[in-house]
Amino acid sequence: MSNRKSGSLSWAPESILVAALNKVPDVILILNQDRTIVFCNQAALSLFEEEHVSQLRGKRLGEVLKCINSVKSEMGCGSSLECQECGSVHAFLGAQEGKDSVKECQLRVIGKETEMALSFRVWASQLPVEGNVFTVLTIKDIENEKHRELLERTFFHDVLNDLGVLQMAAHLLQESQVSPNPNEALLNQSMARLIEHVHSQRDFLHAEEGHYVVVREQIEVRSFLSDLKCYLEQATFAKGKKIDVQIAAEDTGLLSDEHLLHRCLLNLMKNALESSKAGPVTVSFMKQNKEAVFSVHNPEVMPSDVQRNIFYRFYSTKGKGRGIGTYSVKLFIERYLKGLVSFESCKGKGTTFYISLPSV
Asked: How much is the pLDDT for 2?
């Protein structure tokens, strides 16, 4: 084992630090206790359209960005009534109290031709140096993120409203017929599936962003799995394939989020049905050691490379643009339902996925 020699630095540590900070793509500011800039990196100079940090020293964030509220008071940025709601000010004050703080900051600024709206996420941390207390402020532009969130919320709201109206119309049409019409029943089923797909995508996005709210309720597992089986048997990928439901527990009650559990088992059973050449696909339930265990089995064996990547986001054997099914199952079960997802796949046994949940 070779010994490393400490040697002497050809650069001063301060020069290395400044060079490193200038390579960081996000805006970094160091503020004094008056909230004015004493240092910034190259990303900040680019954002503020300045050439040297000396042009920014002594100014506050709102002043260099030309925030419309920074000129409403003689005291400058942070002193007007509107500034009481500013995320960057709150982040700074939190850091001054010794707490790392993250806030969102919405600004209206004076642009070259017209007023503009800016959205930032601001991280603030205290930086004590030789008896002085500074604040490191990291700023990230989240304009695209906020725009996407707005579009998603609007899309899901409008589409689900329209689908609800169409589903109601389909029900009314079916009820108005004297004799049953199989085409109308098919329309109702298709509408239900379409609404399910939209809900699925919305829930997944909310879960990844940490916004999903778990609603626990009492589930009767026997009827729950029976309904799931009936739902899947209508799908084209299940045509000609058998679905078995096996219950190995006397107590089939479970307190959990029925919506999430339905989504996760639906994903696993759909994958099993699509993978299975002949079947059957078996979904089972049992209770052991204060755990409720669901399993989904099919007789096929996953290739080793698929097994290594099965829970990675965007990994799919079904082509480009797929690959959130098993990833979302692990996300929902382990982060939100406090359970565990696992699998085994080997020759002679096939493939079995397990969902273990607290049963008490």
From this structure: 45
The CA-atom distances, in angstroms, between 273 and each of 99, 237, 269, 348 are 51, 7, 6, 18
Give me the helices (H) in 97-239, please.
143-176, 182-208, 221-233
3-state secondary structure of 293: strand
77: pLDDT strictly greater than 50:
yes
Tokens representing residue 262 in the block: 């339905």
Q: What is the third-level CATH fold of 13-141? A: Beta-Lactamase (3.30.450)
Structure tokens given for 184:
């109308």
Quick check: helix, strand or coil at residue 310?
coil
In this structure, what are the phi and psi dihedrals at residue 4, rounded to the nearest 5 degrees? Answer: -90, 130
Q: Where are the domains of the chain?
A: 13-141, 145-208, 217-358
* pLDDT per position as a tens digit, 288-301: 888 999 999 999 99
Q: What six digits make up the tokens of 113? A: 């031709």
What φ, ψ does residue 100 adopt, rounded to 5°? -65, 135
- Measured at the CA of 235, the angle between CA 230 and CA 237, to 5 degrees, comes to 125
Q: Does domain 217-358 have CATH number 3.30.565.10?
A: yes
pLDDT digits (tens, 9 = 90+) for 248-305: 988 899 999 998 899 899 989 989 998 888 679 999 999 988 899 999 999 999 988 8
Closest CA to 300 of 318, 284, 277: 277
CA distances from 113 to 109, 110, 116, 211, 351 (A): 11, 8, 9, 37, 62
